[in-house]
Amino acid sequence: MENFRTIYLHHKKEKQTQEQVDEISTTAKKYGFMLTNEHKQADIIICFGDDGNFLHGVRKTGFRSSCLYVGMSNTDSPGIYTNFSYRNVQSFFSLLKENSFDFVRFPLLEVSINNEPPALCLNETVVRSSIIKTLAIDVYIDNHFFEHYQGDGLIVSTPSGSTGYNKSTKGAVTDPELPCLQLTELAPLTNKSSNSLGSSLILNQNRTLILEIKQDGNDHPIIGLDNEAYSIRNIQSLLVRLSNRSIQTVNNPEFSYWDNITAIFL
């Protein structure tokens, strides 16, 4: 960390936000850090706002593994990724200057659609029906047939992403330091011709999921990569696995990940 001195600030272009960002910039310079408008030149990327803005910032800057990502909330409410508050910006930069943080790496998902070059996700990938008709999907684990699913769609999430869309559909919250991926079903049909697992499935980091979309007239679902949606026609398959890439961030020494979970959900 001693060589990490150049900061890029990712934030929304709003008047109130800009005033807060100006204060963050002034404080950063006070503690000896440099600011840049080019994220490729930065070794510290501060995403200012909420968790959604953090996800957008990580995607915009290319999921860099060589820099440090920091989530800073613009309110008193913490997030899963925005575990530092703007109101404590002085103490944050003091700790950053002293290297008084524990570092943690969050794994990324690798998603290949129709055997094209893979895209990356930090939270989850979602495949959902774009019309009022169920999706039919054959699910394979490591090339072995697992189940025939029919319903509104499927979510594949990372450990850190398990608290998002996955949790809202009764998926499990997983330890962020447990390398795994989770498959969760959205409103599955349960009858004699279509009877899938019906619960979340947690797989170890070496597993590969293949989702084959049945070509029955509903073969152009919406694909979600974190908080961005894509409509792609003629989707035949998705290959999903944990990437060998990850992003590095820091734990708040005064507010742990589990403190965040308690504050947000309990």
UniProtKB/TrEMBL annotation:
Keywords: ATP-binding, Cytoplasm, Kinase, Nucleotide-binding, Transferase. GO terms for biological process: NAD+ metabolic process; NADP+ biosynthetic process. The keyword Kinase applies. SUPFAM superfamilies: NAD kinase/diacylglycerol kinase-like (SSF111331). InterPro entries: ATP-NAD_kinase_N, ATP-NAD_kinase_PpnK-typ_C, NAD/diacylglycerol_kinase_sf. It comes from the Bacteria. The keyword Kinase applies. GO terms for molecular function: ATP binding; NAD+ kinase activity. This is NAD kinase. The lineage of its organism: Bacteria, Bacillati, Bacillota, Bacilli, Bacillales.
